């Protein structure tokens, strides 16, 4: 039976967005929350009205799969086309008179198919003065190129396929060049994007209140205390064990006191009008508020003050003088000097504004060649340096080393900047290659859909205008070699920099594109979601498992996880999509007794164990065995211990991540000599003991040490003669190490 998406998730996301919008005091956060809420309302309305089929690769009614959709979190399509945008006035002004069309967008698109419009597209292609924001922006330029090169039939076929949506979609690029980093350099964001982020920085309310108190209210308070101190006869009041001692205020009125009082009240009123971040001075029972109220009443000497009022003035003076010293004293002056130094420091928001100003010297749609001209060493907080570094153009390895790329997901986000050039290198025409590269990069920015029934995401070649260009792409050996080199470097970078993490889905897709360009077909697998798992796998999983059993035979990994020695050839069937025997093995190994998210997770985890989730296929195909081993394994073991030691509660998500990292470490350790394996496990045991984790995590270490020494786990994952356990992440009941 086909799966159906439940609206419960969408309702939950809508509720969260509305709660954020109603509770936040940040206007930017509120705007984003309202925008999220609008998207989820659209999702729910479409699901209720039958115009959205969530889980299908064509979720919007009467819409081909290639149309770029707005996709909310979790892969839910909202029904909006990202290329359906308002027509700009300059677009409409350029349309030749008499151009037909039912909408302004249709008239603009048909205008580009006139002689004048085609000339505009040719000029843009020749000068590369255009930007492909969504893949659809490249459609009509491809038509123009086809017509220019004598392929009128292909151009007409393409226009015929686009015709039903000419009235809605923007099918021509935006004006203006799209600078790209030179060579193999990449960047995470443009200068303009970073500059906008920096200029939007604000000071947290608590910090703003503190600084306002130091800069404004403390000087006013000291003047207020000094005013009342002038009226004290005898010693100034102080607090002692016996209570308040010293003279009483309102006993003497020095010459000019009234004018100083009036000036202070005027300054206070001005400050109240200009500065509203802090409210401490308004606390009714605070010393400041008591002294202010008394001063406001004391217009003519103290005739309007009661004895109780005077007593409170005396007590407030005693409080502040005892705590901070007399007005003008060295003690009070020293305190205020320290506070003034703190207040004089620029806030992070002020520093961010300075950095944004420095970035004004660079083109907004480009990157930074270096950080030094913008960021002074040791003068800017690290988090602001990190923001600026997002615009740094550098080799991907340098950005990883700097921490600008902190994960495989971010690596996947920048990799299309390199892959796009490789994909376009097979196109001989330079103008067409540039268009192809921009289209590829825009396509990779598409958000993936939630898919059921083993459906796959839309592929680049499904775009009609890309499909029309396939005959003009020739496989070149030099491009294939470069693609293989890039693929190898990327895999080593990901595994060496983030050895504890499985390769994320966006990165797997990008590696697949590089492998295809290199002529190295591989069964690369994406991680499946336990909550939408359909209970079966495609043949690709079985192929990867067979390759894993061959390449990992006899290794520590094979013994630890008890891999099958071989996979018999599957029976031949027409139009076979699923690997039923592989699914059966996964379910048997998982021991799943009922369908549930956790039960699905157990089956998926076994599929990842049997395939090493791409590690074996990549390592064997790219011949990387000698370049992996002890170092990444040691990194993972250290990461595991730190994560466990830093969490009081070991929840399901944590244990899943730990088990996945553990699996990667065992894979890396499999390429080490047995003595190195023993040393690594002994070091791991020391780390676990030092972290105080031996009672809870010790069985996992014991189990690994036993397998290194030649032992094998029983089918239930225990050792026959010891406390060791095989570590897995998913379970339908309590986990043994919780």
Describe the structure in brief.
The chain is mainly α and 738 residues long. It contains 31 helices and eight strands. The protein has helices at 7-23, 27-49, 89-93, 104-111, 115-127, 139-148, 152-162, 191-199, 205-229, 257-274, 287-297, 307-324, 330-344, 348-359, 382-389, 396-402, 408-414, 416-424, 430-444, 464-467, 477-497, 505-518, 539-551, 556-561, 580-590, 597-611, 615-621, 630-645, 652-669, 674-690, 694-708, and strands spanning 69-72, 76-81, 130-131, 174-175, 185-186, 238-240, 243-245, 394-395.
| pLDDT < 50 stretches | none
Identify the overall geometry. Answer: globular
For the secondary structure, the number of strands is 8
User: Main beta sheet: strand number and arrangement?
Assistant: 2 strands, antiparallel
Strand content: under 5%
Distance between the termini: 37 Å
Fraction of residues in H or I helices: 40-55%
Strands of the largest sheet, in order across it?
1-2
């Amino acid at each position: 039976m086909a799966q159906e998406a439940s609206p419960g998730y969408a309702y939950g996301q809508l509720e969260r967005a509305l709660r954020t919008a109603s509770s936040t005091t940040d206007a930017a956060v509120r705007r984003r929350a309202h925008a999220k809420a609008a998207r989820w309302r659209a999702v729910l309305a479409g699901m209720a009205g039958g115009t959205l089929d969530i889980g299908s690769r064509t979720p919007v009614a009467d819409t081909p799969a290639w149309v770029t959709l707005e996709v909310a979190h979790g892969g839910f399509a909202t029904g909006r086309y990202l290329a359906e945008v308002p027509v700009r006035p300059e677009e409409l002004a350029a349309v030749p008179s008499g151009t037909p069309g039912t909408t302004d967008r249709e008239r603009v698109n048909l205008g580009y198919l006139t002689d004048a419009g085609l000339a505009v597209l040719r000029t843009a292609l020749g000068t590369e003065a255009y930007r492909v924001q969504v893949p659809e922006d490249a459609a009509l330029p491809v038509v123009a190129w086809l017509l220019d090169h004598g392929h009128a039939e292909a151009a007409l076929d393409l226009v015929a396929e686009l015709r039903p949506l000419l009235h809605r979609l923007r099918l021509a690029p935006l004006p203006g060049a799209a600078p790209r980093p030179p060579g193999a350099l990449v960047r995470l964001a443009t200068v303009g994007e970073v500059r906008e982020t920096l200029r939007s920085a604000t000071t947290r309310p608590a910090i703003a209140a503190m600084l306002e108190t130091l800069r404004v209210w403390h000087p006013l308070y000291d003047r207020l205390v000094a005013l009342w101190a002038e009226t004290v006869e005898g010693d100034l009041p102080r607090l002692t064990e016996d209570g308040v001692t010293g003279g009483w205020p309102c006993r003497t009125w020095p010459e000019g006191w009234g004018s100083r009082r009036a000036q202070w009240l005027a300054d206070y009123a001005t400050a109240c009008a200009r500065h509203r971040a802090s409210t401490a001075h308004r606390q009714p029972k605070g010393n400041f508020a008591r002294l202010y109220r008394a001063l406001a009443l004391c217009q003519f000497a103290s005739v309007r003050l009661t004895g109780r009022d005077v007593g409170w003035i005396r007590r407030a003076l005693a409080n502040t003088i005892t705590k901070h010293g007399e007005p003008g004293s060295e003690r009070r002056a020293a305190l205020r000097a320290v506070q003034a130094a703190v207040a004089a420091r620029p806030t992070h928001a002020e520093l961010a504004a300075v950095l944004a100003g420095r970035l004004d010297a660079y083109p907004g749609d480009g990157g930074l060649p270096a950080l030094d001209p913008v960021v002074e060493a040791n003068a800017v907080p690290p988090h602001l340096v990190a923001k600026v570094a997002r615009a740094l153009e550098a080799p991907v390895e340098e950005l990883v080393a700097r921490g600008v790329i902190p994960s495989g997901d971010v690596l996947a986000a920048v990799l299309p900047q390199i892959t796009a050039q490789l994909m376009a290198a097979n196109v001989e025409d330079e103008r067409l290659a540039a268009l192809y590269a921009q289209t590829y990069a825009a396509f990779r920015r598409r958000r993936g859909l939630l898919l059921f029934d083993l459906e796959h995401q839309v592929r680049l070649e499904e775009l009609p205008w890309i499909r029309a260009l396939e005959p003009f792409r020739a496989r070149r050996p030099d491009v294939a070699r470069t693609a293989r080199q890039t693929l190898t470097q990327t895999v080593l970078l990901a595994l060496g920099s983030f050895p504890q993490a499985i390769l994320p889905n966006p990165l797997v897709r990008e590696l697949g594109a590089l492998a295809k360009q290199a002529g190295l077909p591989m069964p690369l697998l994406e991680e499946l979601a336990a909550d939408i798992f359909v209970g079966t796998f495609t043949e690709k999983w079985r192929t990867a498992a067979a390759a894993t059993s061959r390449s990992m035979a006899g290794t520590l990994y094979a013994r630890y996880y008890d891999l099958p020695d071989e996979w018999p050839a599957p029976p031949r069937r027409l139009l076979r999509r699923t690997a039923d025997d592989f699914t059966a093995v996964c379910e048997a190994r998982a021991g799943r007794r009922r369908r549930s998210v956790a039960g699905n997770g157990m089956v998926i985890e076994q599929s990842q164990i049997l395939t090493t989730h791409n590690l074996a296929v990549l390592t064997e195909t790219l011949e990387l065995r000698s370049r992996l081993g002890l170092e990444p394994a040691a990194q993972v073991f250290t990461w595991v211990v730190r994560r466990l030691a830093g969490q009081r509660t070991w929840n399901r998500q944590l244990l899943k991540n730990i088990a996945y990292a553990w699996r990667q470490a065992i894979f890396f350790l499999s390429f080490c000599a047995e003595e190195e394996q023993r040393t690594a496990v002994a070091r791991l045991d020391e780390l676990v003991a030092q972290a105080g984790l031996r009672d809870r995590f010790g069985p996992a270490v014991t189990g690994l040490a036993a397998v290194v020494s030649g032992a094998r786990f029983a089918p239930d994952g225990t050792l026959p003669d010891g406390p060791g356990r095989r570590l897995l992440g998913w379970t339908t009941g309590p986990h043994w190490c919780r």
